[in-house]
Automatic annotation (TrEMBL):
Domain of life: Bacteria
Originating organism: Rothia terrae
Region (G4): 129-132
Region of interest (G5), ranges: 214-216
Entry-linked Gene3D superfamilies: 3.30.300.20, P-loop containing nucleotide triphosphate hydrolases (3.40.50.300)
Record-level GO BP terms: ribosomal small subunit assembly
UniProt-annotated stretches for the region G1: 19-26
Record-linked HAMAP family: GTPase_Era (MF_00367)
Biased composition (Basic and acidic residues): 172-184
Subunit note: Monomer.
Name recorded for this polypeptide: GTPase Era
Transmembrane in keyword set: no
């Protein structure tokens, strides 16, 4: 698909997978994107979350995002959940709620379902994962249970909203979901939360926008999941060129994490002026096997001396912060200790210079 030409009814948007620990979110994400992750260096400034991958098809583009909170099992049920859920849900177009076919629906699922219902009006597709681990009959029963959960949660949510509405007379006319979708351009408008809307959108299949079983391991219905998620995204041009995929997930993500940290707080000043290359990434020799350390050397390129000053900060204070934040996130990504060395370099007008772009891996 050419980035510049796409069908009129092309849909594109952001999706996030949520669910209990071990529900199969990562495996499904990987199955959807085919183990590839996105280079997100010149992505639209819409999400602060790491992009896990992009599903490109002739008629849609699905950008799967990750959030530290929703991905990490511990924090998922932690106290920051509400904030993180609200933040994430405000930024995505559709949510995949993963529930294992082979586990009883429990308080964890119920809690997440309630959070999803209360947080806003984003369509939630209930995905019953690991379909290969149960019989057809058990799968049918689980689908029914998931549908019941949706009905129960959504009817409680409807009651809460009706009560709130009754108390808030007179109130402003809320946005309808349709109105939101129409004016939801690919960029910051997506942030407009639909939380104010009165009518939950997840009124389709048993309280969910849809329900679908899948087996990421066997490849059963993976494509259908992509299509279903895409069907709930707005009509929009592709958000990323198709070439923005790589087979080197770790290096790319490391570069992206450094870039993210560098832009934190100065996004408006230098949104597209920062590029990061990983020059070296190696396991340090002579470390104990159970306590490895990865040495990472990166170059952080800016276009002008003034930008270099912003990155470095007073007596190097910002650069130290950037290093600390990036290191923490890289350690979480790699699961090992990391020594991170960042060199700030000025590559004049690198955005306009094809040679420089090539060197920087664009
Ligand atoms: N048989 C089978 N196993 C699966 C399938 N999907 C995931 N699994 C297994 O279930 C386990 C958990 O899967 P993950 O994808 O890591 O689950 P997650 O929801 O990302 O887990 P957290 O990162 O802990 O939140 C892994 O051992 C997977 O191999 C599937 O379709 N079939």
């Amino acid at each position: 698909m050419d980035f510049a030409s796409f069908p009129e009814d092309f849909t594109a948007g952001f999706a996030v997978m949520v669910g209990r620990p071990n529900a199969g979110k990562s495996t499904l994400t990987n199955a959807l994107v085919g183990q590839k992750v996105a280079i997100t260096s010149n992505r639209p400034q819409t999400t602060r979350h790491t992009i896990r991958g992009i599903v490109h098809r002739d008629n849609f583009q699905l950008v799967l995002v990750d959030t530290p909170g929703l991905h990490r099992p511990r924090t998922l049920l932690g106290e920051r959940l509400n904030d993180m859920v609200a933040e994430t849900l405000a930024e995505v177009d559709v949510i995949g709620f993963c529930i294992s076919a082979n586990e009883k629906i429990g308080p964890g699922d119920r809690y997440i379902a309630q959070q999803l219902a209360a947080s806003g009006n984003k369509p939630v597709v209930a995905i019953v994962t690991k379909a290969d681990t149960v019989s057809q009959e058990e799968l049918a029963i689980q689908l029914l249970e998931v549908s019941r959960l949706g009905e129960e949660i959504m009817s409680a949510e409807r009651a809460t909203r009706a009560e709130r509405k009754r108390r808030q007379q007179p109130r402003k006319k809320g946005d309808t979901n349709l109105a939101f979708r129409k004016d939801s351009g690919p960029a910051a408008q997506r942030r407009k939360s639909q939380a104010s809307s009165d009518t939950p959108v997840n009124d389709g299949k048993g309280g969910w926008a849809d329900i679908i079983p899948v087996s990421s391991v066997k490849g059963f219905q993976v494509e259908q999941v992509a299509e279903l998620l895409a069907s709930h995204m707005p009509v929009s041009p592709p958000l990323y060129p198709e070439g923005e995929l790589t087979d080197e997930p770790e290096m790319t993500l490391v570069a992206e994490l450094v870039r993210e940290a560098a832009l934190e707080g100065v996004r408006h000043e230098l949104p597209h002026s920062v590029a990061v290359t990983v020059e070296e990434m190696e396991l340090r020799e002579g470390r104990p096997e159970d306590n490895p350390l990865v040495d990472i050397h990166v170059n952080l390129y800016v276009e002008r001396d003034s930008q270099k000053a912003i990155i470095i900060g007073k007596r190097g204070s910002r650069l130290r912060e950037i290093g600390a934040t990036a290191r923490q996130n890289i350690e979480a990504l790699l699961g090992t200790k990391v020594y991170l060395d960042i060199h700030v370099k000025v590559a004049k007008d690198w955005q306009r210079d094809p040679k420089a772009l090539g060197r920087l891996g664009f």
